[in-house]
Input
Amino acid sequence: MSAIQPTSGNSTSSVLGRRLGGELTKLRTATGLTQTDAARVLTSTITKITKMERGLVPMRDPDIRALCELYEVRDPGVVGRLLELARLDRERRKAKGWWDDYTLLGAMQEYVTLENAATAIRTWQPGYVPGLLQTRGYVNALRTTPASAATEPRRGPDKEFISARLARQQRLFAEPPLSYHALVYEAALRNIPGSTETGREQLDHLMQLADLPNLTLQVFPLGAGTHQGMNGSFNIISFAEPGAMDVVYSESVLTQLWIEGGEGAAQYDELFGMIAGRSLGQQDSQQFIHKLRKDL
Output
């Protein structure tokens, strides 16, 4: 399991870059070699090797081939997979999109890029309506509450934040559309920020989106008990690219965590399946939301 914050100093790591760096580190340590040995082969500094192994810089194919030779990696399949990861990482780092027009802070910079490249996302949200399903009024209410101001001291202008959030939602309608499976705790639907009208608008919006063929929306009812996911939200991001693995982005109070493939991602996959199994079915969830809307 890899659990890593995505930024360090003036450099920025990426999901694929960290995976590639981690695999090269394992190959190096398996042969008993040091970063000094690797730096000597590449005629570089130890600092550069450190950045490569932490995924902080894109990697060149000649460097990967030289390191594989040093680490006695003879399998063409292994070398080819590392080269493919490096290629995908370089392309991901150069990716441009609508998000370049906005100021995105911290982990959200990388998350939005991954969200745009993903083929499927599964999300569990115990406290809020998922971001891709929020209305303008809901987002505005979140940004203007005292609690929001306390937990987001570095937030950008509200108009820019709201515009960026709404721009992200176009991913649900793009071609090919994102497959999106959202599990939402009942409490999040009963405790909608803002006015009663904001709540009605948000629930109406959820019922409209529930008809999308690429969207599965389930409500986890209050009477369904507790589970590990109550500690915070998480998103499982999946890709169609060769060499890509599921990436988990988890949030709790003032903390973000990336978990990249392996046993860690598998545990979140199992947790998501458990929560989904104890949630209302899609049709029952729509009926539940409809009843909440009528009671407002």
User: Anything to note?
Assistant: Confidence is low (pLDDT under 50) at residues 1-11, 147-157. Residues 72 and 229 are 42 Å apart (CA to CA). The domain at 11-94 is CATH 1.10.260.40 (434 Repressor (Amino-terminal Domain)).
